[in-house]
Specification:
This protein has 538 residues and is of the alpha+beta class. The protein contains 18 helices and 10 strands. The strands form 4 sheets. It has a 4-stranded antiparallel β-sheet with strand order 8-7-9-10, with helices on one face. α2 crosses α9 and α12 crosses α17. This is Cytochrome bc1 complex cytochrome b subunit.
Length: 538
Amino acid sequence: MSGVIKGFARKLFPDHWSFLLGEVALYSFITLILTGIFLAMFFVPSMATTTYPLDALPVTEQGNHVSEAYASTLKISFEVKGGLLMRQMHHWAALLFMASIVAHMFRVFFTGAFRKPRELNWVVGFTLLILGLLAGFTGYSLPDDVLSGNGLRIADGVAKAIPILGTWVSFGLFGGEFPGMDIIPRLFTLHILVVPGLILALVGLHLLMVVIHKHTQYPGPGHKEDNVVGYPVFPVYAAKAGGFFFIVFGFIALLGATLSINNVWSYGGYDPSPVSAGAQPDWYMLFLEGALRLMPGWEFEWLGFTFSMSILIPGVVIPGILFTALAAYPFIEAYATGDKREHHILDRPRNVPVRTAIGCIIIVEFFILVIAGSNDILATHFELSLNGITWALRIAFLIAPFITFWLVKRICLSLQRRDRELAMHGRATGRVVQTPDGAFHSVHRPLDDYELWTLVQHDLHRPLEVGSDTDADGIVRSDYKSLKRRSAVSRFFFEDRVEPVTKSELAAAQASHHQLDHSSQSTSVAQLERTDQDEIES
């Protein structure tokens, strides 16, 4: 075992702030487990009705008939020492856990860290994202208050919108007609046993793959596909990771102690008869709420069945397409590039404009749906028309992808052109040189090795060429149609591109600048002042 331990202890990891996003997710999950164990000791996962004690806080609930789950939540908040702090830390940790997972996945997406050999690890990370959503939904549904009850009512509506099977799915989930008596105990089992167990297993697998495949690194001098430039796990990263855990834990404790969240006594116990406005779920589920609010009330009947498209499309179809495309993206890009090599050097987002544009589309659409999930709050606070906000967001949701794609792609290509000019000519110094033939030239400062390497090291993918539909013998190629489809996908990704600087171009540019600097020593030189570009001192 000593050899294994020594090998792991000397494992190198690169040093960059963006790599801490995954660690924030891990430490938030550890905080969730610690606070969740505390809460599980006092929570009663039962929907049985009880009378809230007349001598217990809050006063507004005294003598009310509430569920055991809701009553135990209030007991944790008002009677258990440290209970309210643990509840709020648990909730804040859940929000931070999901935020760090999303940020970490976007870092991986934009930098191309999902490429071979990490496609499977991307799928594992994506599964962790889905499990995080499931853990959040099952968790905030447990107190059985009005807010969580409305969320379960929406889940019931989405289940019933599934064609043919919807009613049976709802009955199976709730143990009968909504709300039933079984959903809270079932959610409790999922929340404290099944989902955390799966998350722990996948986190271990995720970290194991990171160790096996070695860590990705950003481009720089000495950074190659077959090495890692960084610090060993022990003692450097062991000390840093331990300290960073307490920073994350302390930050969550500060949030839990100072910022109130999910005050269930303000909402009251769940009553399925009224419908309340101004209720929003946690931020990571708000996009589903927004999709439901934006969808028009479309439905039709066919073969005696009612198809509620107003719920089915935003609640099932759109999330299904989105999450499936997100999970399959590494394989789609590999199909477009035809690249079978292993990649350990990360991309700069500007060098892959189509991928960057697709990621920005997801972000923009997510924010539109989040705003839509709060359209009633916007209407009341800013005295705007609710229908006007809804129609504006519907239009934005449909046209924003095209505008975002075009704009981000143009920005990336422009940044590539700027990088090309910088690599060939360096940075402007403000000096102007007059050569013997009377011409004036601007003098540039060459880039250092680190800057130059960053600008010229990236690979350039070109669209795949299909060629003729027949081979050299005039026989029709059997793979022509599949290659033609692959070429179309490849053109979408790589048709618009900026060619990187070649070695010959770079050598010629450097020789030209060297000759210009040499000639400036024996000719008149003009100095352009940055404060006054019109004044030239000879």
